[in-house]
Amino acid sequence: MSDFHYSTDADGIATISWDIAGKSMNVLSMEGLAELEAHIDTALGDGAVKGVIITSGKPDFAGGMDLNVIAKMKDMAGDQPEKGLFDGIMSMHRCLRKIERAGMDPKTLKGGKPVVAALPGTALGIGLEIPLACHRIIAADNPKAKIGLPEIMVGIFPGAGGTTRLSRKLGAMGAAPFLLEGKLSEPKKAKSAGIIDEVVPGAELLARAKEWVLGAKDADLVKPWDAKGYKMPGGAPYHPAGFMTFVGASAMINGKTQGVYPAAKALLSAVYEGAMVPFDVALKIEARWFVNVLMNPSSSAMIRSLFINKEALEKGANRPEVADERVRKLGVLGAGMMGAGIAYVAANAGIEVVLIDADQAAAERGKGYSEGLLDKGMKRGKVTEAKKAEVLGRITPTTDYAALSGCDLVVEAVFEDPKVKAEVTAKAEAAIPETAIFATNTSTLPISDLAKASSRPEQFIGIHFFSPVDKMLLVEIIRGRETGDRAVAKALDFVRQIRKTPIVVNDARFFYANRCIIPYINEGMRMVREGVAPALVENAAKLMGMPLGPLQLVDETSLDLGAKIAKATRAAMGEAYADGDVDEVVFWMVEEGRLGRKTKAGFYAYDEAGKRQGLWTGLGEKFAPASDQPDLIEVQHRLMFAQALEAVRALEEGVLTDIREGDVGAILGWGFAPWSGGPFSWLDMLGAPFAVAVCEDLEARFGTRFKAPALLQEMAQSGRSFYASRASMAA
Ligand code: NAD
């Protein structure tokens, strides 16, 4: 089967069209690369061919490298994975360099054949690295197309020459947002940034590409870096301006990544070292750094969780085999913060929404939230007036439950009060079709208890969104005791429609995400009470790659919510409740009126505008820091194991049924150190024997909450890992 199709026309133009059968998006495999190279050889060797167009037979050019291949490449490389990877990468460079040199005489730089990339739509990763090796990049004027190098987002960097070419094309500073942040642009913006050369109407794309090829002169084929006297735009490292760029970039990367993301640092090293040597040597340096990153366990864990498994879950890896359950008409009960957000994401995905609240003004306010977000989008040029009208036109705000008639899904987001929830469940069920599914967005109440208010408990489910709904990527779907497969399928199809990532968990206190965040927050507050310096707690978390320290996280979610949850948990658990020492801190803060960001006073101090200043000094007066402070690693272990052990317990108890969901959910739900790939990947990285040894030490000094779960102990004894066990079970 071929991925690239080769044809020639009467004017001597060879067209290589990328069009993988049976896939909606082209992705590059090693076989595909070999085919591309063979076609390039044919074109360069054929005297009748004057030039080459590389394009796609699909609406888009390519989505990137098949990352499954990168993961496999390493496994297949036997005893010397580094060598296998390096050779594989160098074969990519050879092919792309062949395109770039296009048969020209290396001394005179004459006699090459023009190669143009004609991009009908999206061109990402290797899908842009191939065009960057061509002599000209022409894109169709397709505002939906995305052009860029997003590799850094999954823990690697553009390793097929994209790093070296883009930094030489735009200069280190100009290339930084695209390389270091994975910024994607639509074609016109990519042109103004200098990434591509030309944007033309889609219908003229191939004709324009051909015209360019036929008119190209020898000089048009020589890349700046192959021409004599090339100087890097903005200056190479030892140029005064370049020096400033590289010093600044180095500090910025360390600041942003806290040193835990190996790819960003490796990328900068490749650019820095590469800038001081000839281009072909720079490619070799890039390849060496790329191998370095691919050999780092963090990169494989990130690729596995953030790309492979995230996509598998989005495509319904754990969806019951039930017919299509896509939502046509959605009812949302409660137009507060969550309900308004749910209505917005659904309407934005093309779903009709009935938005109900207790009074009309509240329902209208809920719809107004969508209007606000759409207005913001318009200001940023992302939303048109027509799109805004279309989305708003789909939301009907009302108090009338009869309007729910015809809804195939209802999501309830009223007050967190079982009585209120029971009342709206009964009212809605009287109005919706018998086949409709009813979901609750509760964050703390057991689904199986709430289902008692339903006359159709098998059609009752939890769909737990995170706040703010429009930004948070994860949705937790909770099966109650009686929830049936069709309800799960409906929830999964809905989440897919609104383009978020689902995990499916079983019903237990706090489900999965909140269950793991609470011990993290509590451990932070507990340490403050013990006299650990608050700055040490916060910085230890950030240096582990947590986006927010535990104290900042409490400020964001609010201390009164913490107090409310603590009271309810204590009431439910009775004697078994083990967080009394933490409550001392929480309740004292609440008494002081320091409820967090919303009151502009919490563990942190805030200015009048609500901007966070520094840690609140009053904290140290109440809980004086001890003269003897623990070392950083100990604080980090306490914070990380508090979360990871809870994730393992959730797995042991059957709340989680799939470690992939545990890892993806942890990163997207509460920002669990993304570099690690999630708590299960992190424990695998540490190795079960080491993890158990740390648990034993922490348990002896800080209490039974650190006791290694039986599952982890078994693994330590048998020498297995979570992912190896999963693979052997799947085999
Ligand atoms: P909110 O107070 O902002 O909104 C609740 C809305 O429900 C209000 O507009 C209220 O008028 C309306 N309401 C109350 N009783 C009603 C009734 N009988 N009929 C119709 N409407 C009624 O609360 P929220 O933060 O949006 O939370 C809603 C639900 O989502 C709760 O169950 C909460 O636990 C859950 N949740 C909240 C968050 C969060 O971060 N806030 C996150 C996940 C889940």
Describe the protein in words:
Strands 14-13-12-15-16-17-18-19 form an eight-stranded mixed beta sheet, with helices on both faces. A six-stranded mixed beta sheet has the order 1-2-4-6-8-11, with helices on both faces. The chain has a three-stranded mixed beta sheet with strand order 7-9-10. Helices cover 51% and strands 12% of the residues. Among the domains are: 4-295, Alpha-Beta Complex (2-enoyl-CoA Hydratase, Chain A, domain 1); 329-509, Rossmann fold (3-Layer(aba) Sandwich), CATH 3.40.50.720. α12 links the parallel β12 and β13. With 731 residues, it is α/β, with parallel strands linked by helices. The two termini are 27 Å apart. The chain has 29 helices and 21 strands. The radius of gyration is 28 Å and the shape is globular. It binds nicotinamide-adenine-dinucleotide.
